[in-house]
Specification:
It is built from five helices and ten strands; from the N terminus they run E-E-H-H-E-H-E-E-H-E-H-E-E-E-E. It has 178 residues and is α/β, with parallel strands linked by helices. 26% of the residues are buried. Bound molecules: NADP nicotinamide-adenine-dinucleotide phosphate. Residues 7-8, 15-16, 20, 22, 25, 51-54, 57, 73-77, 92-94, 113-117, 120, 143 line the site of NADP nicotinamide-adenine-dinucleotide phosphate.
Length: 178
């Protein structure tokens, strides 16, 4: 604990176009070359749990962007390219067992990434922090961040930052009834 989501969405709540395209996200104005707090966030996590489809998009980047261990959720993948040996592991199972396994390996602060993946973890109420950056664009269709939940989940709003009149980054923490 905690399990955190750090993700960008369109105004209408999509994380990518239906075909996985995230160029609309990469093209946002950024004259000062800011990382909008991403490195600070990465310093707060021990490992990343990522859906296979997100992993396949990241593989298209010019270089591997993570300096923390990545656990790719997949039932289909059998191996990773040689250059990722020791950096990326393939893992499967239900969200609770995955978290228990990683916690037992001393990875306590987890970054959960990918649309279906985040939805699966939210459905089991396993997300403790949501950091959502809303980009000023409407896509009309795409891969949604959220889906149905079994129960309402209340969050405390911790902070909101606005960058370049284009990005609104809000940090929420799950309120759990003891
Ligand atoms: N806007 C943003 O900030 C942002 C962030 C992240 C991703 N994205 C985009 O979102 C898209 C990907 O999201 P997505 O919703 O399509 O998929 P996803 O969550 O990245 O990946 C889904 C896949 O993960 C595997 N998986 C999930 N849970 C599993 C489990 N418990 N056990 C085993 N395997 C499991 C399955 O792969 P198998 O079929 O191999 O079993 C499933 O098909 C990409 O286009 C990516 O670029 C955007």
């Amino acid at each position: 604990m905690p399990n955190k989501v750090y993700i960008a969405t369109s105004i209408d709540g999509f994380i990518a176009k239906k075909n996985g395209d995230i160029n609309w996200l990469m093209d946002i104005p950024n004259p000062e070359g800011s990382d909008f707090g991403f490195n600070e966030f990465m310093n707060s996590v021990d490992a990343i749990v990522m859906g296979r489809l997100t992993y396949e998009q990241v593989l298209k980047f010019s270089e591997w962007p993570y300096n923390k261990p990545v656990f790719v959720l997949s039932s289909a993948l059998k191996s990773v390219p040689e250059f990722l040996n020791g950096k990326v592991n393939i893992i499967k199972g239900n969200p609770k067992s995955i978290i228990e396994k990683l916690n037992s390996m001393k990875y306590s602060n987890l970054y959960i990434d990918g649309g279906k993946t985040v939805q699966e973890f939210l459905k089991e109420d396993l997300i403790d922090e949501l950091i959502i950056t809303r980009i000023s664009i409407l896509l009309g269709d795409g891969i949604p961040l959220f889906s149905k939940l079994i129960n309402d989940q209340k969050y405390e709003h911790l902070a909101t930052e606005i960058f370049n009149n284009t990005l609104v980054k809000s940090h929420y923490k799950r309120i759990r009834n003891k």
